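Lab manual, section 2.4: Encoding a predicted structure.

Procedure: take the sequence of the chain (317 residues), apply the prediction step described in section 2.3, and record the output as structure tokens. A sample record is shown.
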Amino acid sequence: MAKNRISELFQIDYPIIQAGMVWCSGWRLATAVSNHGGLGIIGAGSMHPETLEEHIRKAQKATTKPFAVNVPLLYPEMDKVMDILVRENVKIVFTSAGNPKKWTPFLKEHGMTVVHVVSSSKFARKAEEAGVDAVVAEGFEAGGHNGRDETTTLTLIPAVRRATQLPLIAAGGIGTGPAMVAAMALGAEGVQIGSRFAVAEESSAHQMFKQRVVDAVEGDTKLMLKKLAPVRMMKNHFFELVSEAEERCDDADALRALLGKGRSKKGIFEGDMEEGELEIGQVSSIIDKIEPVSAIMEELITDYRETLSMLQQHSPF
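Recorded output:
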């Protein structure tokens, strides 16, 4: 792939970014992606501050390539996290789930490249006003926490492209080379891939979770918990409990009590396939194997190039 604004911004070989996913994105996954030419991300959302510090230090020993940290801005110990990012000399930070205006100036003052995840063109404009260096536009197909508007990636990317001149990364439903080509055609300059890397050998997710994703078929995921924070999850016993609660029109407090603490850890990290919250994207239905990052990256790049060549040779126009 030729260099573009995203690969130049992060100083990486390919504009392929691994999403910062809770319970999946530790230092092993992040450094594997970075060492194979993409940008790996450590997901701080499921880590205590001291755990995040440990993962950053291990990543610094495992790679000389750029890597990033994803920080959900609703994190309860944000001051401690920001101190760690500065102290450990983190160079790239992806923020999500909150207002970027509060922390972007602080991160920029300390020389960090800042990227914010958005689910609409409105929020993309706000991120640009906050001074971020790039945005990730994440469509409705994505796993984990999601936008309330349910805008699909096919619609979201060109809308955000019109709304801002910032370097644009597409996310949501992207897990193959052809999907990468489609995202670039819509105006993206890079892609963020979650589900495909969530089941990589280097992912810290439980083996049973990875196998459940590989076994998934169309319709196995749905966006739920819209009264709290919308999240796409796989169907299991916990999903049915949530579905029944929403059919009863339970209020946010009742849903919060049902969710409790540690549901995603129980499912993704500990392997409880019935009582855990199994967060994954719609693209899970076309993921058919658990494999190392090296194989995933090679296939993505090869299929991207072959798709481009095919389109050039067989264009009907």
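Check your result against the sample. The CA atoms of residues 65 and 158 lie 31 Å apart.
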